Amino acid sequence: MSKKGVILINLGGPNSLEDVEPFLYNLFSDPDIFKLPFQKFLAKLIAKVRARKTREYYEVMGGKSPQLEQTLEQAKALQDKLGESYKVVVGMRYWKPFIRDALKTLIDEGIKEIILLPLYPQFSITTTGSAFNEFQRAVKELKAENLKVRKVFHFYNHPLFIKAWVERIREKVEKPEDYHFIFSAHSLPKKIIERGDPYQKQTEETVKLIMQHFPKVSHTLAYQSKVGFGKWLEPSTEEAIRNSIEKGIKKLVVIPISFVSEHSETLYELDHVYKNLAERLGCEEFIRIPTLQTHPTFIKALEKIVKET
């Protein structure tokens, strides 16, 4: 039986401080996220302006993003589960190894059937949709139109994905009912949601399914990482933290519900900016739940998703 290829796709992140500016350029060049006039010119300008401040984030994180290393670990764990009839590779959207690199690796091994598995639990045109569009460009460039391709659009409500989060929370929180849960997801402009993007509804469903396991716990769904102007999904994570503490809640559990590996939004925003904010406001205990990474139940979820696709 011929081997099937699996491309694990994620956002990607700088592997060094020197990579920050070109990484930002790739991000702001993406029309699925930012529709700008003179896109490449403005992307170059924005990347240059933002690079200095963004480099400070990565300095706090140790000089680079750990996302590639963690995604490679996920790929290895999934490969071990799937066995020799599959070949699992990693392709990043905005930094090396790119989606094109992953596709070329599979083509060079003679693989004709490929499963695209973006590591974004909830679908958005700005994440999963952008990854699929980039894959199609790579297919055209590499003249690989004869491939059989199957796509995983989301896994926000997969029972094993939900179970993995429940287990992760219980591993870190001894008495959940003593805390207020703040689920923090990546934000999006409201205009994208208004065009029919399902991201917000799927994120709300993920939270609902997790909270069924914690019936005595209060919670808030909030959104982080707004970029630029305009109206974005609300409340912001900062606002949720402030509101909770103003109501007298002094013990918080923060759950990065839209992320499955660590990067600047968890290690800098949540662990540095928002934790410090919460402590200044009088928070007595701030527990940030780690992302799923290679949690055994999450890897089982990925294995099941691949085999069912």
Layout of strands and helices, then pairs:
Layout: E1 4-10, H1 20-28, H2 39-60, H3 67-82, E2 86-92, H4 99-108, E3 113-118, H5 125-141, E4 148-151, H6 159-172, E5 180-186, H7 190-194, H8 199-211, E6 218-224, H9 237-246, E7 251-255, H10 264-280, E8 285-288, H11 296-308
Parallel strand pairs: 1-2, 1-3, 3-4, 5-6, 5-7, 7-8
Helix pairs in contact: 1-2, 3-11, 6-11
Fold and architecture overview:
The protein is α/β, with parallel strands linked by helices. The chain folds into two domains: 1-154, Rossmann fold (3-Layer(aba) Sandwich), CATH 3.40.50.1400; 159-288, Rossmann fold (3-Layer(aba) Sandwich), CATH 3.40.50.1400. It contains eleven helices and eight strands. Strands 2-1-3-4 form a four-stranded parallel β-sheet, with helices on both faces. Strands 6-5-7-8 form a four-stranded parallel β-sheet, sandwiched between helices. Helix 1 (20-28) crosses helix 2 (39-60), helix 3 (67-82) crosses helix 11 and helix 6 (159-172) runs antiparallel to helix 11 (296-308). The longest helix is centred in the first third of the chain and has 22 residues, at 39-60. The radius of gyration is 19 Å and the shape is globular. The model has no long low-confidence stretch (mean pLDDT 97).
